[in-house]
Write a structure and sequence with these properties.
ten-stranded mixed β-sheet; alpha/beta; 10 strands; single chain
């Protein structure tokens, strides 16, 4: 293999002393020979930097970058992308870990049978919960797709969590560099989905492999992003919507299905604001007005085909921009919980 086929593995870390060694060793033990591991510590205050320095002395393929100021996970990933010397990119969070053969499977999937190599390879993964139970999610098929991939499989991949995480994928670093693609550092949540959607808008050749090679660690219910209020959760979900709307060549079925899923995704963040935040009622209403009057959201509620009573009521109110009425409805619904 040549240097042009090297895979760069970017691993950001922040206070990851309990998991970072497992993550890095899972990357180092990959049998794919042409690889580099770039661990970017985002100014951890625990023993993570010391663990990384120890591993750097032991693992020849590991390079450690210690950031002096905490800038967030997106900034750490971008630092890794800038430092990467590979032809291909895998990005892995510090609490997740790889199964043996992941790099080989992703690389083999993108090798062209005919024509150009795939610009994106996707593998299955295991959702690993605190009680150590594992739920395996994997693609339903294993072959090359072009635009038809997004027309037939996008909703299925979303439902299986295979689209909404960035860590089960092999990206084309040449394409990333050419387009100047980076993680959005203003997003503290949904930044991974946003990156995937912006990448999908750029690439056309996509491949899948059935194996569940990535272990995606799920945190306790009280720590999950879908159960904890995040200050920019609603606005970041609108950013995801805007980037989804730039993806071309979707079939009507995929477009309709994804619009419904994104509507639910956005409204769930609105619901968390009423359930979990300490915002005043006027602040909540202001947040709805700021996000639900954007052109991207107006287009969504104009075009979406809702299912079920709750979705239909929400779309009816928001399509007519009766946002205060929607606000009062949320106050009523979430007051009872």
């Amino acid at each position: 293999m040549t240097d042009m086929e090297k895979i760069s593995i970017i691993i950001p870390s922040y206070n990851s002393e309990m998991s970072i060694e497992r993550c890095i060793r899972s990357a180092a033990l990959q049998s794919y020979p042409e690889k580099e591991i770039i661990a970017v510590d985002d100014a951890s205050t625990d023993s993570t930097p010391e663990i990384l320095r120890k591993l750097e002395k032991e693992i020849p393929s590991l390079r450690v970058i210690l950031r002096e100021k905490n800038g967030g996970v997106s900034a750490a990933r971008n630092t890794g992308i800038e430092a990467a010397a590979g032809r291909w990119l895998v990005t892995l969070d510090g609490d997740d870990y790889m199964e043996q053969g992941m790099l080989e499977a992703l690389y083999a999937a993108q090798v062209p049978a005919e024509g150009m190599p795939a610009q994106l390879s996707i593998c299955g993964m295991k959702l690993v919960y605190p009680d150590r139970t594992e739920v395996i999610e994997a693609p339903a098929a294993e072959k090359r797709y072009a635009a038809v991939f997004l027309t037939q499989y996008m909703c299925t991949l979303w439902d299986k969590h295979l689209l909404t995480t960035h860590a089960n994928k092999l990206y084309d670093l040449e394409l990333i560099r050419k387009e100047g693609l980076r993680y959005r550092e203003d997003l503290r949540i949904n930044e991974d989905i946003d990156f995937v959607f912006r990448y999908l808008a750029l690439c056309r050749n996509i491949a899948m492999t059935k194996g569940a090679y990535m272990n995606y660690v799920q945190h306790g219910a009280g720590e999950s992003n879908i159960t904890v209020y995040r200050e920019n959760g609603l606005s970041s979900s609108l950013a995801v919507l805007e980037d989804f709307q730039k993806i071309e060549d979707l079939s009507e079925t995929s477009l309709n299905g994804m619009e419904r899923r994104l509507l639910v995704h956005i409204l769930s963040f609105a619901g968390l604001m009423y359930q979990k935040s300490s915002l005043t009622e006027e602040q909540k209403l202001d947040e709805l007005n700021r996000n639900f009057r954007t052109e991207s959201f107006r287009q969504l509620v104009r075009d979406v085909k809702p299912r079920g009573v709750k979705e239909k009521i929400a779309v009816f109110l928001l399509k007519h921009e009766w946002i205060r009425m929607y606000h009062e409805l949320c106050r009523l619904v979430y007051r009872k919980r």
